[in-house]
Design goal:
Belongs to the multicopper oxidase family. This protein is mostly beta strands. The protein has 4 helices and 21 strands. The N and C termini lie far apart (109 Å).
């Protein structure tokens, strides 16, 4: 190839690259202008099992999300402590609620007391890494990135810093709800519950401060399988509450990193299950499976008073590894639906 032949081709390639760059800059400028016209609000973030209030507005907004990464020591079961890595100081992390079409500006701060870097990958993001490359930050640093909530649904977010499974197994996951443009149907009670698996050298309830066990995580041999990060997070004074006849909605997810959930409520039938946290639902469901990094939305109406029991229906996980919770239901008895008294017949 002669020099005279090569030069025009090079110039055409350079010109094409310049045009693409100009087009990209023009698109970014147009997007920034459109975002600048949106009303601005700061997202309400809630600790589990509470859920941010439904979104009342009918048009998009620019939503500011302020989230921290925090490393905290607390009980994983009475008498046994664990160093949790968290979003916002809770397991699961603070719940986020936005509307389809919102522009979300997420601010992530890794507290100075942290020992290691963290970031965030939101499954609600359409783009490589889900925000993880933009938010990888050392202790004491902060980062910001922006995304548009294109798809309605219930999505998991988690730390994606290597080793990823370790960060997730230490509690770094949560959920973001992207409401559809038409909003969610009103209900009486909403709760936020996530299942996660934890790996320690000691057995369940061994006592003391238990560290993370990498080999048990690789072997998928969990010491604890928990709802909301502790064996007693949804029992006793922490039990969920509802009244007879309430329409209850549970936003349920599996943080993993390894174990899928077989979610079931003993004493209730799900009227609706929005599989995989999407928009389509199945009716009259007893148990639903949720994969690690996945979610579901279930709705049901308690018919009689008493305790409903939330479990992973792989029941060794419930009764030996901690995946159990209670919903305490108050209200009038309905013996025509459920008779609590046993009837014994005398033999003749």
């Amino acid at each position: 190839m002669s020099k005279l032949q090569f030069q025009p081709r090079f110039n055409r390639a350079l010109l094409s690259s310049l045009l693409l760059a100009i087009g990209s800059l023009a698109a970014m400028s147009a997007w920034a202008d459109a975002a600048a016209d949106l009303p601005v609000e700061t997202a309400e973030l809630t600790a589990p099992p509470m859920v941010p209030a439904p979104i009342a507005r009918k048009t998009p907004a620019k939503v500011i999300v302020n989230l921290t990464t925090e490393e905290v020591i607390r009980e994983i079961t009475p008498g046994t402590k664990y160093m949790f890595w968290t979003f916002g100081g809770t397991v699961p992390g603070k719940m986020i609620r936005v509307r389809q079409g919102d522009t979300v500006e997420l601010h992530l701060k890794n507290l100075p007391t942290s020992k290691v870097p963290h970031n965030i990958d939101l499954h609600a993001v359409s783009g490589p890494g889900g925000g993880a490359p933009q938010t990888l930050i050392a202790p004491g640093k902060d980062a910001t990135f922006t995304f548009k909530a294109l798809n309605p649904g219930l999505y998991v977010y988690h730390c994606a810093t290597a080793p990823v499974a370790m960060h997730i197994a230490n509690g770094m996951y949560g959920m973001i709800l992207v409401e559809p443009e038409a909003g969610m149907a009103p209900v009486d009670k909403e709760y936020y519950v996530m299942q996660g698996d934890f790996y320690t050298p000691g057995a369940f309830g061994a006592g003391g401060l238990q560290p993370f066990d990498m080999q048990r995580s690789i072997d998928e041999n969990a010491s604890y399988i928990l709802f909301n990060g502790a064996s007693n997070s949804l029992t006793g004074k922490n039990a969920l509450t509802a009244n007879v006849g309430d329409k209850v909605r549970l936003y349920f997810g599996s943080g993993g990193p390894n174990v899928a959930s077989n979610f079931h409520v003993i004493g209730a039938i799900f009227d609706k299950v929005y599989h995989e946290g999407g928009l389509k639902y199945q009716e009259q469901v007893q148990t639903t499976t949720v994969p690690p990094g996945g979610s579901t939305i279930v709705e049901f109406v308690p018919k009689v008073p008493g305790n409903l029991t939330l479990v992973d229906h792989a029941l060794s996980r419930a009764f030996h590894k901690g995946a159990i919770g209670i919903m305490s239901v108050s209200g009038e008895e309905h013996p025509e639906i459920y008779s609590k008294a046993a009837t014994a017949k005398a033999e003749h």
